[in-house]
Write a structure and sequence with these properties.
The protein is an all-alpha fold. The protein has helices at about 5-15, 20-30, 35-40, 45-65, 70-80. The chain is globular, with a radius of gyration of 12 Å. About 25% of the residues are buried.
């Protein structure tokens, strides 16, 4: 799995219990073993993109505030592919 997508999977694991849409996105991520974040983004529905946008913005902010710039960078790489 692409390193950026591995970071995304880790982030999504924090939301699996509270949201069916996140579970669906995470299942898609694990089942398809996308070679890149671009391939993953191309396979998403508009609803998935909206949900990921909200989560990624929150998680990138948190990563940068806590000084985890590598994590923020990796998540930003996925975020940029959503649009």
């Amino acid at each position: 799995m692409d390193q950026n997508l591995a970071y995304l999977h880790e982030v999504l694991s924090n939301y699996l219990e509270e949201n069916d849409a996140i579970r669906h996105i995470d299942q898609k991520l694990r089942a398809n073993r996308y070679p890149s974040e671009e391939a993953f983004a191309k396979d998403l529905q508009q609803e998935d993109i909206q949900m990921l946008t909200q989560i990624l913005q929150k998680e990138m902010h948190h990563a940068n505030e806590s000084g985890d710039h590598e994590r923020g960078y990796q998540l930003n790489e996925v975020y940029e592919q959503l649009y």
